[in-house]
Amino acid sequence: MSVTVKKVETGKELAQYIxxxxxxxxxxxxxxxxxxxxxxETLSPETNPAFExxxxxxxxxxxxxxxxxxxxxxxxxxxxxxxxxxxxxxGWLDFVDDREVSKALMDKVVEFGKARGMDKxxxxxxFTDLDPEGMLVDGYxxxxxxxxxxxxxxYKEHLEALGYVKEIDWLG
Length: 172
What we know:
Shape: globular
Helix content: 25-40%
Radius of gyration: 15 Å
């Protein structure tokens, strides 16, 4: 069955978006859930001042009628202007181990960026450097000592299969 990717537009969809990682990582002992209210404030234009200089859309991927992934596409206009870039960011990337799902999500980020004149994709990044950034490439069994993203080991393989490459190592 094919994957459908839908823009998050309702409060119910945003709640599902925020809760998805809790289901995806329920069997991963090192995963620490984020606070719902904090995620809601960060992802809502009404409460996050970064929306004054960022365009963003969040998406849910569905397969077989069930949520199978999520991502947020972000264009930080201020950062692009300062650094003379045309970059679309992706963040809040979580997905089941299905290449069709990961491809559909990343294709949506590319589409979002191209529609706004962007020519490069970077991430995982948030709206600003105050948001969780990066992707684990090892240490999956370790509890994080900082507010960072957590992911399954297959994420790296999925993104590499799509042609994405690591730009930098961050050590924590």
